[in-house]
Amino acid sequence: MSLVQPYLKLRKDLAQRDRSLREKVVSLEEAVSFVRDGDSVGIGGSTMSRTPMGLIWALIRAKRKELSCSRCIISSDGDLLYGSCASDHIVTSWFSQGILWGVSKVMRHFVETGKARYDEWSHLAMGMRFRAGAMGVPFIPIRSMLGSGVVGQRPEAKEIDCPYTGEKLLLVPALNPDVALIHVQRCDAYGNAQIDGLQFMDIDLAMAANKVILTTERIVSNDQIRRAPDQTKIPFFAVDAVVELPFGCAPHECYGVYEPMMRHMEFYVGLVNKDPVAGMKEYLDKYVYGPKSWTGFLELIGMEEVLEASRAGVSIYDA
Amino acid sequence: MTRKGEYTAGELLAILSARQLKDGQVVFAGVGIPLLAATLAQRLQCPGLTILFEGGVIGAFIEPGKLPPSTNDQRCTTRANMVLGSAEVLLLLQRGYVDVGFMGGAQIDQYGNLNSSYIGDPKKPKTRLPGTGGGNDISSLTNMIVAMKHEKRRFVEHVDFITSPGWIKGKQTRSEAGLLAGGMYRVVTDLAVFGFDETTRRMTPLALNPGVTREQVQENTGFKLEFSHDTGVTEPPTEHELSTLRMLDPERLYIG
């Protein structure tokens, strides 16, 4: 597939999607059938925030492979995608579990041995790539990355002289993922999605992608959505599937609902950074392949920790 | 007045870099010491400091004991003036709304270029590091303050890879590369505070930290430093600075 999709192909793919106001609620297992091996997958949220972890967890269980994943900043979700061999290519601006834990040994193992690719772009470049995708244009000019080693590794980015001012600019190519995975606080059965707090790059990602799968803390009525339509950030016609998945970001956080489950994160990082192969296998066997359901995974994290994270996740409206 | 040994290197870093900020400025802060130091400045000499985070926050006011684990967590938004998209907050740098970018660093060179991508040859790296995040954007688009530990392996003549550009190869090379605004302004370490020569754009010591000698700084630096007769000495942390800092980070998450 070409780096930037021809405009008419983008339009044709979109025209073929059913954009009617219809119910799209499916199970987590059904939702991942929307993702095919080899797809390019855009992941919503950032770092440890609003990560669509349940969807990633289900993709790994469904044995998807050769996914090319993009996210503005990727955390332990990137580890799991590499470690399970679901993805061998990640496009992002920063890749590690979190600043508290130094460098991810899983990322290091896969990238340093050439088992997987990590394409690095600046954070703004990631944003402008999704935005160009959402705008239906092939590129956007930016003023960062110039003169750095980062741009030296990205022949996909093109330096030009501005036709108006003569100044140097960098063109970053549109990123239109085959499918976007996004977790939100609430949406209705049609997919009208409301995002509280930090929205990261999710709106551009949703509008750029050719399919959108939502997980949500709660499915609400369309009446509730219509009472506050200004809070709707992703329109229903961009959404293809909706899964109600409480604590769907665990062990990461969901704004205003729960904070990251730090004890589980500490445990996870300790395990995989000690041995990125055996530790990762142990984690995947017990926490990803082991449980019968997402609820079973939450049970393994433990009621105490889940409730503690939930108590700490204070909404700006309740504080 | 405090004495060496009464504070950690992390505390000294946070306090000295907080002093670099001025009231009324708009500062774009990275996680760790920068976030903490900007918050400290806000509680001390800069009540009117506007703090931005790449997660999409304008005018943050971090609560004591609730330091966020990244600049993309909900804790960053407490009592903020605005939350917005990550691309939108990064675009404020490009438009020119930001006075100072404030980051940590893994490896820096004589021209203030930062590397957070590779140790060793990037084609066959000894270590793949996490990468730029917003670092490249911040250093490309505004004036930068960097707070980092002073070690010889971190202060090198040439970085293995330019993740976040400083003055690139010195003189006019930054603007020639197309980076028309901003540039490296200060580097604050546990040994000294540095600026950059107006013409050559090489790193120059401005002041030594209390009890630190010129030899000690040079020994821990991988390139030649030019000390001048006006290389001064920084004021040690005050009791008030230390107690405020410790109040903000009671779990010693970032101050060590």
Structure description:
The complex is a heterodimer of chains A (319) and B (256). By secondary structure, chain A is α/β, with parallel strands linked by helices. Chain A has 13 helices and twelve strands. In chain A, strands 1, 2, 3, 4, 8, 9, 10, 11 and 12 form a nine-stranded mixed beta sheet that branches. Chain A has a three-stranded antiparallel beta sheet with strand order 5-7-6, with helices on one face. In chain A, helix 4 (76-83) links the parallel strand 2 (67-70) and strand 3. The longest helix of chain A is centred in the middle third of the chain and has 13 residues, at 123-135. The radius of gyration of chain A is 19 Å and the shape is globular. Chain B contains seven helices and 15 strands. Chain B has 256 residues and is an alpha/beta fold. Chain B has a single domain (9-248), classed as Glutaconate Coenzyme A-transferase (3-Layer(aba) Sandwich), CATH 3.40.1080. The chains are: A alpha/beta (319), B alpha/beta (256). Chains A and B meet through helix 5, helix 6 and strand 7 of A and helix 3, strand 9 and helix 4 of B.
Describe the structure concisely.
The complex is a heterodimer of chains A (319) and B (256). Chain A is of the alpha/beta class and 319 residues long.
Number of domains of chain A: 2
Output the radius of gyration of chain B.
17 Å
Q: What is the CATH architecture annotation of chain B?
A: 3-Layer(aba) Sandwich
> What is the succession of H and E elements of chain B?
HEHEEEHEEEEEHEEHEEEHEH
As residue ranges, the low-confidence spans of chain A are none
